[in-house]
Amino acid sequence: AAPTSTPTGATAPPVTAPTGGDWELIYEDDFETDQGIFMGTNKRFNVVSHSDGEWSLRVRKTSRLNTEWVDVPDYSQISFKFWFYATGTEPGDDFFFRVKFDGQNSYTKIDEWVSGTDFDNKEWVEGTVLIEIPEGKNGIQFQIKSDSDARNDKVYIDQVLIEGM
Fold first, then answer.
1. What are phi and psi of 35, to 5 degrees?
2. Residue 151: pLDDT above 70?
3. Chain-wide mean pLDDT for the chain?
4. 122 φ, ψ (degrees, to nearest 5)
5. Chain-centre distance for alpha carbon 112
6. How confident is the model at residue 119 (pLDDT cuts 50, 70, 90)?
7. Own/partner pairs for 109-112, CB < 8 Å, 24+ apart?
8. How do beta strands 70-71 and 139-147 pair?
9. Interval 9-24: pLDDT, tens
10. Non-local CB neighbours of 2 within 8 Å, separated by 6+ positions
């Protein structure tokens, strides 16, 4: 039998799959004690909660959840993960994930989720957004904005995890 050899150089497969060990925790919250870095009043409710908690944040109709400024001077990329649960939405109702960097006056849409396409009512879905940090930007604000037509169109947000690399 021919001796087996291990591939070398740039074409060698990694020994183990990358695990994301380079990601550093920036912020996480399950909203069990307060609404954390999310500003405003009347944002936290004990209607549904992901996993074993009782509380989550909520947007409905055209409301929004804005965070305080988050310092990100040492990161080139941010990962924003969260779980969401919708009630009362009709196909086509959606919500956006937007960001604003220091020095900017308005938010930029990064992603969106559409009822009937990306999620259905009454099921927990995980959302993940990767954000590139432009050169020279040191702060970021996150926004989750509902874009629906009725007050009973509700999206609950829970288990937020923000990491940087």
1. -100, 15
2. yes
3. 89
4. 60, 40
5. 11
6. very high
7. 112/147
8. antiparallel
9. 433 333 443 345 789 9
10. none
Band of residue 1 on the pLDDT scale cut at 50, 70, 90: low
3, 22, 127 from 14: Cα distances, Å: 21, 16, 28
- The number of residues making up the chain comes to 165
* In the predicted structure, residue 110 carries a pLDDT above the cut 90: yes
Rounded to two decimals, the pTM is: 0.85
Q: Which DSSP symbol is given to 67?
A: B
The tokens describing 31, both together, are 């909203």
Residue 68: count other Cβ atoms within 10 Å of its Cβ: 11
pLDDT in tens, 81-104: 999 999 999 999 999 999 999 999
Contacts of 67 (CB under 8 A, 6+ apart): 37, 38, 39, 141, 142, 143
- Among candidate residues 38, 100, 87, the one with its CA nearest the CA of residue 61: 87
Alpha carbon distances (Å) from 115 to 20, 64, 86, 145, 153: 30, 17, 8, 14, 10
**Could you tell me whether strands 124-132 and 77-87 are parallel, antiparallel, or unpaired per DSSP bridges?**
antiparallel
Which has the closest alpha carbon to 82: 45, 57, 109? 57
